[in-house]
């Protein structure tokens, strides 16, 4: 057995409930790849503010950095909402973790399950066959550029270096190799200089991946095409701001936020895996949250960080089977509790 260390950050609200089910599922499937997971849990977010006065307690970042992967539930809730810039906020833990672990690429797969096509706001014939991956640059661009106010003027600056573009483009091309071998690079190169550099560098990376087809698309056109013909996309790679917007738009294709996983990867060191949804305080502690997004995040973790592809596939297949049989939690119109869904996935996977 190969031993791997995973840091578990359950967080707030439904976080501990959904992470608990994902952990049991991983423990069931990991030996398909001869892996044994050693778990180490830490408090981050609101619960850490309550206990330690800060959202990311001392030593947690170091523990994550020393692990093979990090699995996070969600952080935040009304209890810690504050408008005072001096008060600690739960999401500061996330930002510090992303920065501290150097996580520059955010991956969000979107593959609606046929049994749930009806849950999408788009017509079934539009979403049929959709299986796409949004790769978003996470640590550069306008969110991190110089910004400020001068009297009645405010500004935010978007800047990228070739190195920042290259490393995220490489993640996209590598991912495409294991998929349908097509990358759509989204920019605004008809207007923005940073986009022209983006396009230029992506073309260079593409030249090193002759087996992968590259197309360029302007962001306004991509926003339209994502809802008019989503099945035509394979891997979409884009900068931080465009990716923030497009990945949420793409998320809606599958209809339920309770189904969507994500991965954040860096150059070296562990990746961080978490559901796209938040801590859902409105349904916390009721045992009704959908654990599937977190279980699918755990599948990404097994595939990208723990070199356990069979275990990853076992989870993804179990989700399709269980949902295909008509079982679902309340967010999808079903009656399963969080724990019952976890049990169903475990029996389908094992
Ligand atoms: P949310 O995703 O928590 O909830 C939106 C709606 O979706 C709610 O009605 C909720 O009940 C439902 N929902 C979400 N996940 C679900 C699941 N697994 N099963 C069933 N239903 C689910 O978004 P929000 O309400 O805008 O934010 C709530 C809190 O979460 C806020 O404090 C926010 O800051 C935080 N948040 C955290 C993260 C994160 O930790 N990465 C991300 C987004 C929001």
Structural features, described:
The protein is an alpha/beta fold and 350 residues long. It folds into 2 domains: 1-103 and 257-350, Isopropylmalate Dehydrogenase (3-Layer(aba) Sandwich), CATH 3.40.718; 121-254, 3-Layer(aba) Sandwich (Isopropylmalate Dehydrogenase), CATH 3.40.718. 39% of the residues lie in helices and 21% in strands. It has 12 helices and 12 strands. A 10-stranded mixed beta sheet has the order 2-1-3-12-11-4-5-10-8-9, with helices on both faces. Helix 1 (15-29) links the parallel strand 1 and strand 2. Helix 8 (219-228) packs parallel to helix 9. The longest helix has 16 residues, at 162-177. The chain is globular and about 50 Å long. The two termini are 18 Å apart. The model has no long low-confidence stretch (mean pLDDT 96). Nicotinamide-adenine-dinucleotide binds next to helix 4.
Mean of residue pLDDT?
Answer: 96
Number of strands: 12
Q: What share of residues is helical?
A: 25-40%
What is the architecture of the largest domain at the second tier of CATH? 3-Layer(aba) Sandwich
* Main CATH class of the largest domain: Alpha Beta
Whole-Å distance between the termini?
18 Å
Biggest sheet strand line-up: 2-1-3-12-11-4-5-10-8-9
Instruction: Write down the oligomeric state.
Output: single chain
Strand proportion, as a percent range, falls in 15-25%
Spans of 5+ residues with little confidence (pLDDT < 50)?
Answer: none
How are helices and strands ordered from N to C?
EHEHHEHEHEEEHEHEHEHEEHHH
Outline the biggest β-sheet. 10 strands, mixed
| Named CATH topology of the largest domain | Isopropylmalate Dehydrogenase
* Integer tally of domains: 2
Large-scale geometry: globular
SSE class: alpha/beta
For CATH, the homologous superfamily of the largest domain is named as Isopropylmalate Dehydrogenase
Identify every distinct bound molecule in the structure, by name, code or SMILES. nicotinamide-adenine-dinucleotide
Rg measurement, Å = 20 Å
